[in-house]
Design a protein that fits this description.
This protein has 275 residues and is an alpha/beta fold. It is built from 9 helices and 10 strands. The strands form 2 sheets. Strands 8-7-4-3-2-1-10-9 form an 8-stranded parallel β-sheet. Strands 5-6 form a two-stranded antiparallel ribbon. Strand 1, helix 1 and strand 2 form a beta-alpha-beta unit. The radius of gyration is 18 Å and the shape is globular. The protein starts with a strand and ends with a helix.
Length: 275
């Protein structure tokens, strides 16, 4: 089992330059950051976890800027977007940002993507909630084309561009792994169609791993690693490991330096027996 730390990188959280080397020294394999470009004040879409939306959602830094700081401050720590809201991003700019980070970090990028939940946020980017999954697939495929082709082009229904030159290309070959986040009913079909790994949230996700393995075998897809966000208990770690989860990821708070360090210390002790 591999272990990661996740955080909302904000202007009031522990700095990424301090957090990254501490995460590495504590024995964690990866560091993950969330993304929200902004939060519309209308607040029409309910917070999925219930209650008031925490302020970290409004204060989140750009994930590639945050992870670049983490890359410079660490040596071998893998750097993950958890998740990049690609449905709200230009795929050409995102391909360049992600490839630049992969180059700066010497191939340490894990490219987690997802379709999001906030209708108003994505609408401000011109993205329709109803077609966001189609858009996500085309943008992932377009990013991969830019990463892997010297003269890249992509022609879909929602993303379309002719031959282009765009460097740098990622250090990771053939490209950084694409992890698809989500727990929806069709998520496994999407993983098999255009992703490399699955990164579900909590809920009944663990019960679907046998289904994933069956789909993987029937389609001829390479083995799909699963990254999961368990509760921070030994029982949850062991349950995840028992069904074949390869990576467990735990959040540290974005409410300042001291809370993050306290949580990181507790999590380091938790994973000690499993390393």
């Amino acid at each position: 089992m591999k272990f990661g730390i996740a955080i909302f990188p904000t202007d009031h959280a522990i700095s990424m330059t301090e957090l990254a080397p501490l995460v590495e020294e504590a024995g964690f394999e990866s560091l993950w950051v969330a993304e929200h470009s902004h939060i519309p004040t209308s607040r029409a879409t309910p917070y999925p976890a219930g209650g008031e939306l925490p302020r970290m959602y409004m204060h989140t830094m750009d994930p590639f800027v945050a992870l670049t700081a983490a890359a410079v401050a660490s040596k071998s720590l893998l750097l993950g977007t958890g998740i990049c809201l690609l449905i709200q991003r230009d795929p050409i700019h995102t391909a360049k940002e992600a490839a630049s980070l992969d180059c700066i970090s010497n191939g340490r990028l894990l490219f987690g993507v997802g379709a999001g939940w906030n209708r108003e946020e994505m609408a401000d980017h011109g993205t329709a909630f109803e077609t966001r999954f189609k858009l996500l697939r085309e943008r992932v495929e377009a990013v991969k084309a830019i990463w892997t082709q010297d003269e890249a082009e992509y022609h879909g229904e929602m993303v379309d561009f002719g031959p282009m030159w765009c460097w740098p290309k990622p250090v990771s070959k053939p490209h950084p792994p694409v992890l698809l986040g989500g727990n929806g009913p069709n998520v496994l079909k999407r993983v098999i169609a255009y992703a490399d790994e699955w990164m579900p949230n909590r809920g009944a996700a663990l019960e679907r791993i046998p289904e994933l393995r069956q789909m993987e075998a029937e389609s001829g897809h390479a083995h799909v690693p699963v990254s999961f966000y368990p509760r921070d208990t030994a029982a949850d770690i062991e349950r995840a490991a028992g069904v074949g989860v390869e990576r467990s990821i735990f959040y540290v708070p974005a409410d300042g330096r001291a809370p993050a360090l306290t949580k990181l210390d507790a999590l380091a002790k938790l994973i000690g027996p499993y390393r």
